[in-house]
Amino acid sequence: MYVKGVLELRRVGIDIGGTFTDLVAFDDETGELKSLKVLTTPREPWKGFMEALRQLGWELDSVEVVIHASTLGTNLFLGQVGLEPPPAVLITNKGFRDILEIGRQNRPELYNLFFQRPRPLIPRSRRLTVAGRIGPRGEELEPLDEDAVRRIAREWCSRTKVFVVAFLHSYANPSHEKHAKQIIEEECPGALVVASHEVDPQPKEYERTSTTVVNALLKPVLSSYLSRVAGELRSAGFKGRLLVMQSSGGVAGVEQAVERPAAFIESGPAAGAVAVAYFSRLMGIEYAIGFDMGGTTAKASSIVGGEPLVVPEYEVGGRVHMGRLLRGSGYPVRYPYIDIAEVSAGGGTIAWVDAGGALRVGPMSAGADPGPACYGRGGREPTVTDAQLVLGRLPEELAGGRIRLRRDLAEEAIGRLADRLGMETVEAAASIIRIANTVMSRALRLVTIERGYDPRFFALYAYGGAGPLHAVELADELGAKEVVIPPLPGVFSALGLLVTDYRHDFHMAVMRRTDKLAEEELEKVFAEMAEKALAMLRGEGVPEDRVQLVRRLDMRYQGQAYELSIPYRGSLREAVEEFHQMHRERYGFSLPDAPVVVVNARLTAYGIVAKPRLPRAEPKPYRPEPAGRRRVYFDEAGWTETPIYRRAGLRPGAEIEGPAVIESDDSTVLVPPGHYARVDEFYTIRIERL
């Protein structure tokens, strides 16, 4: 059913990755689903974006919506796409000039004597202080020094157009921040002034200041980038709406993305996790692991009860060690993010020999340019893709024939590495795959075992251009019950954009003990947030009957430093009981007689979109005929004459016993010996051990 403003007849999802830009387009009227891949243009990403639309072949004035996701938020922030963050000035309370430098006391690497924290985003020379103080209950302890704010604005107006205002306890009383912002705007017309109470109105001044600074630095950069994309679209005849994927797992309009740009940082991986959640609900699978292996990195996420696990905070630019983000190595941002573990292992990851003569894989990547040696674009370093080609697991064409792979160049690159290791070329290629799998298995363990989940109850959804090649070996190592290869795995994150709902997150500080807090007070807080949420969704064309509001409370025992997020259904007593239970499950104990504090009230507003009618058919068991055969190398069996199947020719009910290779334009599925694959009613390939 078509609902105006919620389901668009023609929609396009575009996901810009480190190596490829993926596109999926759906026409609801005809049921046509199209997909394609083009090489990413890292320094000017909008060029790859527009090239993908050009190759789609649709007149853009017939497209109602384009939904955009990428990992570019981090790259924009780090200045890796031809745009640099602007210089900014931070104005804060006296005595808190070094808040960004001091941060927290946790050491990311306890025994690393040479570890250095990241440099503050705003240097000390541009961190300025003024007198004035608000107390934790919102009381004014010292008046704001308005003259000092005015002097700073006048002095710095000619040198910067970005000001950040972050005062203590502004979540409880934002009057000082509002007044300071007003003064700066009067003295420096046209300046961007970002106040912390607008961005992150909750306690903990370091995290609030960091979140505000990241937003302030990203805002002009992301605004410029999205304006460029929107301009290119308009020039090509597009008259619809441009939406942006958020790291929380929902889409929003460009205006909201620009207001809270830090929520856009890891939007590409989030789209893949949303797609896994959608298919797991469709297929009745309660526990799933999303495994996304692209050209540069591999990422993992967990789906529990049909929903991705979400964390309330992320660190931009943080270092990753063994799949784990090292806390304290980046810049904290307090927005909801889908919980994703990441390792530097993709199709373009480079294999090398260290000083001790040991084979290593990653973290360096050949990227899109020059790419793996087999691309024939000047790359000489051996990569994971080169190893798969040498082992016969990849065809000699990718992306529907648009990318030709040269086996001779792959063998040369792997051969040079093998000579240094004193082994045969094939042995070196197999070793590269084994090491890459070991690296990637860490990410899978991180989102299951280290989160308290038994992976034996999980299905492993493999996607990304390289994911289906490695999935079965990884599932065997992890002990996952089955592997699921969804439709269009090579562009699956882009497909996820077409099934993603609108989402907006709001929170307000409460900071009250539950025995001194009335439910009526909470209802007023939620009503205020709901009013903002409904207005925002109305502006995006979402009717009220398509809106869902989810309410939660951040709760902790009095004296604790961190909170648990608890669903709120209107009863504070029930929320407290649920908090005790969750604390017991998470930490092994609870304190039923201890005072409980409500720190924040949170509201998530969803605008539910109608989902595309994806192909579905009743499975009728049959054994398909292979399209051909070739020699493929497997660790235990060695070189094996292996049947090759075209995925496009497999109907629901197809049954294939390994060894086998299943090829499609966007990915290749490897079914090793001792495994069995079948195509189900949703055209997904499900692989289990025999």
Automatic annotation (TrEMBL):
Chain coiled-coil ranges: none
Domain Hydantoinase/oxoprolinase N-terminal: 11-188
Sample GO molecular function, one term: 5-oxoprolinase (ATP-hydrolyzing) activity
Domain Acetophenone carboxylase-like C-terminal: 517-685
Entry superkingdom: Archaea
GO BP annotations listed: glutathione metabolic process
One GO cellular component term noted in the UniProt record for this chain: cytosol
Hydantoinase A/oxoprolinase domain span: 208-505
Name of the protein described by the UniProt record: N-methylhydantoinase A/acetone carboxylase, beta subunit
Lineage: Archaea, Thermoproteota, Thermoprotei, Desulfurococcales, Pyrodictiaceae
